[in-house]
Design a protein that fits this description.
Blueprint lengths: L4 H14 L3 H21 L5 H13 L4 H20 L26 H14 L5 H16 L3 H5 L6 E2 L4 E5 L5 E5 L2 H18 L19 H12 L10 H13 L4 H8 L4 H4 L1 H17 L4
Antiparallel strand pairs: 1-2, 2-3
């Protein structure tokens, strides 16, 4: 058995107790296992030098900066946990630096292009086309609330307060938040519930909001494919569901929403994460100025 393998398993159980998502648990587990294998193969001690050597090997093998940064974060969390449990006397991860990532501005669709997509989906969503009703409902909710695709796929009917037009979503770390949605999204949800969901629901179907034609909970990949297909013919071009989340946040700020309110809507733990959308809004403002002002 590799050194620290038992500790790795205990650390992963701790992640479960903290409410980390299965995706996060898997990523941490794989990264740490990879590092422990490196220690075993190189017969190295767990110290700063071995951590740096491991990252150098990964870089030399062609790993991207984002991959190196993620793996560094995983191992730092593990070494900090080892120190906390007094398995090691010094935490070598404290002095491990990750590569500095370039922060690109998120891709944002224009209000006009989103409106045209939604109008097209609304026109297609007739009572005899349950799947079209589902598509319209999904797209409206993503744009209306800025929720993540995984949050939309996880919604149950019981999560809605239809009278107040509020929906409870469960985000990262199982943290819940209440999101408002507007009249157009309310209409899309109501029509899907009335004419679409009932057509797809089977006796053993879950209480999920969105169901497939086989009565199963809709998956993240299906929603991704829907959004990508609808946006590919717009000026935005190839884009995924996160583009709607970026667009919702940017359009809210464009129309005067408070930054902290947008932070709450998006479920960001840090205001700094939300602030990137202020840069997007400023860039859009500059572009409009350059196109419209006679002395630009």
């Amino acid at each position: 058995m590799q050194r620290f393998e038992l500790e790795r398993e205990a650390f992963l159980k701790a992640l479960v107790a903290r409410g980390n998502s299965p995706h996060t648990q898997k990523a941490y587990g794989n990264d740490i296992a990879e590092f422990l294998t490196f220690l075993e193969d190189s017969k190295s001690n767990l110290d700063l030098n071995s951590l740096r050597q491991w990252l150098w090997v990964l870089t030399d093998a062609g790993a991207t900066k984002s991959t190196i940064a993620r793996k560094s974060s995983s191992v730092r969390a593990f070494t900090a946990w080892l120190l906390e449990r007094e398995v090691i006397d010094v935490d070598p991860g404290l002095r491990l630096r990750s590569p500095k990532l370039e922060r690109n501005l998120p891709k944002v669709a224009t209000e006009d292009s989103v409106a045209k997509v939604l109008e097209r989906l609304r026109n297609m969503a007739t009572t005899d086309k349950p799947s079209a009703l589902s598509d319209w409902c999904a797209f409206e909710l993503l744009y209306a609330t800025g929720m993540r695709v995984s949050e939309l796929a996880g919604l149950d009917v019981d999560d809605f307060d239809f009278s107040r037009q509020l929906v409870r979503v469960t985000g990262k770390g199982n943290k819940q938040r209440m999101l408002p949605y507007g009249d157009m999204a309310a209409e899309a949800v109501a029509r899907w519930m009335r004419a679409g969901r009932n057509a797809h629901a089977l006796p053993d179907s879950p209480n999920a909001l969105l169901l497939t034609s086989r009565g199963k909970r809709i998956g993240v990949r299906q929603i991704y494919a829907l959004v990508a297909k609808q946006l590919e013919d717009t000026p935005t071009g190839a884009a995924g569901p996160h583009t709607l989340r970026h667009s919702a946040a940017t359009h809210l700020l464009d129309h005067g929403a408070d930054l902290r309110a947008v932070q709450e809507i998006l479920g960001h733990a840090s205001l700094g994460t939300t602030q990137i959308y202020t840069h997007v809004s400023v860039e859009r403002l500059k572009k409009s100025f350059e196109q419209a002002h006679p002395r630009a």
